[in-house]
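Workshop exercise sheet. Pairs work together: one partner reads the sequence aloud, the other fills in the structure field after running the prediction. Swap roles for the next sheet.
Pair: D.N. / O.F.
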Amino acid sequence: MTRPDRSEILYSFKCFGAAMLALYVAFRIGLPRPFWAMMTAYVVANPLSGLVRSKAVYRFAGTLLGSGATVLLVPQLGNSPELLSLALAGWVGACLYLSLLDRTPRSYVFMLAGYTAGLIAFPVVADPSTVFDVALARVEEISLGIACATLIHSLVFPQSVGPVLLARVDHAIDDARRWIREALTAAPEQQGKHARWSLAGDITELRVMSTHLPFDTSHLRWMSGSMQALHDQLALMVPLLSAIEDRLDTLRRLDPASVTDDWQALLADIAQWSDQTSPSADKTARLRAGIKRLTPAIGRDASWSTLLQLNLATRLHALVDATETCLRLRRRIDDVLQGRGPIPSVRPDRTAASALHLDHGLALRSAFAAFIAILVCSAFWIVTGWPSGAAAPTMAAVFCCFFATQDDPVPGIRMFLNYTMLSIPISAFYLLVVIPSVHDFPLLMLASAPIFLVLGVFAGRPATGLQAMAVLFGVAGMMGLQDTGSADMLSFSNGMLAQLTGLGAAVFFTRLLRSVSTRRVAHRLLRAGRNELVSMSTSRRPPMLTAVSARMLDRIAQLSSRLATAGPEHDTSGNNALIDLRIGLGVAQLRALQTGLEQAGLPLQPLLQQLAQHYRQPAGVPATGLLDAVDTLLRALCAAHLADAGAALAGIRRNLFPAAPPYFPPSPAAEPSR
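Structure field:
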C-alpha cells in the first residue's frame, strides 16, 4: 500500500486511456459487447511495451484460432449440447496441453485458442445459428482492445524491454564473473552456491524474455541473434565452472602438490582477466598459451592426478573461450546500440533456443483436470436448465488455463475467486446503477476513472498485479458477459453465481487431479535429468551440446526456485542436478569423438549402454560393473594418447564415482604379452 510513483501512475493512465479508447470505438461502431474491448485492453497491458506488442500478436492469433474452431464445431454439434460440451472440453484440454509444451510466451496462442472457444460457444448453445455473428463480434471486440492497447503503450512514453533485458544480461555476466573468482581462488563455498543458483535462474529467465525482443520498440530488437548466442555461451559456462570447481577441490584434497605455483598463478590470471570488460587479445592468447603449457601429456602411465589436471585444463580452455565470446558479444551489442558498428549477422542454434525442460505428464494432468471441470459444469448446466449456466463451464475453462503452469494452481485460483467476490459490489454498482444512469460517453468515462485508475496502479506492481487484475477481470468481465442495456438484479445475480460456480469447479478438480507438491516436482525434475542422460547415451546421433546444456540448466533453475527454502534438501537436489549436467557435458564430448574412437579400435558403445542402464535405475542404486568398464576404457585411451577423450572420460568417472578410490594406471605385470 505504498504511495504510487510516477511510472506506476503513468502506467495506470496509459491502461485507462487504452481501455477508454477501445470502449469508445466499440460504442461508435455498434459492437454488441463493447466492454470486451475494454477488458482486453487491460489484459494485454504490461509496463514494458515490447511485452504488450508480443502479447497482442499472440492473443490475436489465439483468438482467431479459437473462433475458427467454434465456427466449425457449433454448427455440427449444435443440436446435441452434450456432444458439443464434450467437444469443447476436449478442445480446451488439447490446447492447454499444447500451450504447456511451449515454455515461451508463444504458448499464449494455444491457451487463448482453448478458452476463447468456450467463451464464444457456450453462450450460443441455445441458439447455434448465431455462432458466426457472435464469433465475428468477439474477434472484432478483442482485436479492437488489442489494437488500442498496442497503440497507446507503443506511442505514449513507451518503456522498452531492451534496457531491462540488458540489465539482466549484465547481472548474469556479473554472476558468472563472481563464480569464476570464487571457483579459481578457493572462496567460501556458500558464496559459490549463491552464484550458481542465481546464474542458472538468470539464464532461463533471459531465454524466455528474449522471445519478446523482436516486438520491442528499442534497437535491441535487431540484435536478437547476438542475444541468443550470448545466452548459449552463458549456459555452457555453468557446467564448465561446476567441473572446474570440483576438479580443483579434488586435486587440492588428493594431491596438493599437483596444484603448483604455476597453476595458482594461471588461475589468478584467469580470474583477473574475466573481470575486464574488454580484455586484450594478447592477454587472452597468453592465457591460452599458459593453459597449454600446463596441460600434462597423457600416456600409459598417467596417474589419476594427471588425468584430473588434463580435465581441468580442457575445462579452463573452454571457459576462456566461452567468457571471451560472452564479452565480445556484449561489446558488440553496445557498439550497435551506440551506432559504432553494423548489425552483426549472428545465426545462433535455434534448437538450443527452444530446448527447455518440458513435463508431458503434468501437462496431460492439467489438460485432464480442465476437461473434467468443464464437463461437470456443462452437465450441471444442461441438467438444471440454468439460464445463466453457460458462464460456469466458461469460467472453469479460463481459470484452469490461467494457472496451469504452477505446481499447485489451487492457491492462485482461490485468490482469484476471493478477489472476484470482492469485485461483486463494484460490478453491481456499475452494471445496475452507473451504466443505466449515464447518457454519454464522457460521463461514463468520468464515472469509471476512480476505480480503474486506482486498480491500474496496483496492476502494474508485481506484488499486487494478480489481485488487481482479478478485480478488474470481475468488473469488466461481468459487464462483457451481460447485456448492459437490459441487465437487472436477477440476471446479474445469476451471471455472477455462474462465474463463481465455474471458479469453484476449477479449484475442486484442479486440487483433485492436478496439484502436486514441491517435493514431487523436484523428484520429476531429477528423474527427467537422468532420462536425458539415457537418451544421450542411446541416441543414434550425437547430442547437441548447447541444447542439452540449456535444457539441463533449465531444470537446475527450476529446482533452485522451488527448493530455495527447503534447507539441506535444496543443496542435495541442486548438486545432483549439477552433477548430471557435468556428466552430460562429458557424454556429449565423447559422443562427438565416437567415430574416431571406433576407427582407433576403441568402441564406445558398450560403455554407453552400461551408462544408460545405470541411469534407468532409481537414484542411489549401485552401478554394478560400471566403474570397471570406465577404468578399462580409460586405460585404453591413455595408452593410445587420446587426450580429449581421456579428459572427458576422467570427468565422467569423477562425477559418477566421487567416493571411489583413485584411478591407477596398469602395472607392468598386468600388461598382456605380445
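Discussion prompt: Residues 304-337 form the longest helix (34 residues). What would you look at next?
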